[in-house]
Amino acid sequence: MTTAKIHRPNLLVADLERSLRIYRDILGFQVAYAGPASEGGLMQNLFNLAPDKPLRIAFLSTGDDGWGALALTESREAPANPTDGNHRVLIITEVDGDLDEVIRQLKDKGVTVDRRFELYDPPRTDVAFTDPDGHRVVLFQQHPAN
After folding, report:
1. Full-prediction pTM beyond 0.85?
2. Hey, which end of the chain has fewer CB within 10 Å, N or C?
3. d(CA 17, CA 22)
4. Which residues of the chain have pLDDT under 70?
5. In this predicted structure, what is the pLDDT of residue 146?
6. 83-123 pLDDT, tens per residue?
7. The domain containing residue 113 runs over which residues?
């Protein structure tokens, strides 16, 4: 039997530096690599972009996963995100640290953060935001068991 294993999600973004200000500077991902995307047009093909446009990519790590946590591929001509109100991507991210400080920094960058949800199985706080490229990010922080 064949089994599949998620390697990493790859998000199409319009401005790599703007995205890194959220994913690296606020959420704490480490940049394992940032530079030109693979040669030969692979990423252009996968994202259905013009084959002659150079792309930049950043591989983000949580420190213990090499290059495997998340990739951001920049295309200045990235198609607009759907405006029907539905989100096609959810990135579930555990916050290890001060969740209130993360929320404050996001708001300082002009990001709208949703209301908090206090959940009990397992005990945790969930709060979501939408990044500047329309990707939905859910931050959660587990609470110690009583």
Report:
1. no
2. N
3. 9
4. 2, 4, 67, 78-86, 88, 146
5. 64
6. 566 676 788 888 988 999 999 999 999 999 999 999 888 88
7. 87-146
Report residue 91 as tokens: 């990135």
What is the per-residue pLDDT for 83?
58
Can you tell me the distance from the alpha carbon of 88 to that of 121, in angstroms, rounded to the nearest whole number? 25
Q: Domain boundary at 77, 105, 137, which?
A: 77
Among 38, 53, 77, identify where a domain stops: 77
The count of domains in the chain is 2
Residues 67, 107 share a domain: no
- H/E/C letters for each residue in the chain? CCCCCCCCCEEEECCHHHHHHHHCCCCCCEEEEEEECCCCCHHHHHCCCCCCCCCEEEEEECCCCCCCCEEEEECCCCCCCCCCCCCCCEEEEECCCCHHHHHHHHHHCCCCECCCEEEECCEEEEEEEECCCCCEEEEEEECCCC
- Residue 135: the pLDDT is 87
CATH number at residue 42: 3.10.180.10
Contact 99, 70 (CB under 8 A): no
Looking at the fold, whether 46 and 100 belong to one and the same domain comes out as no
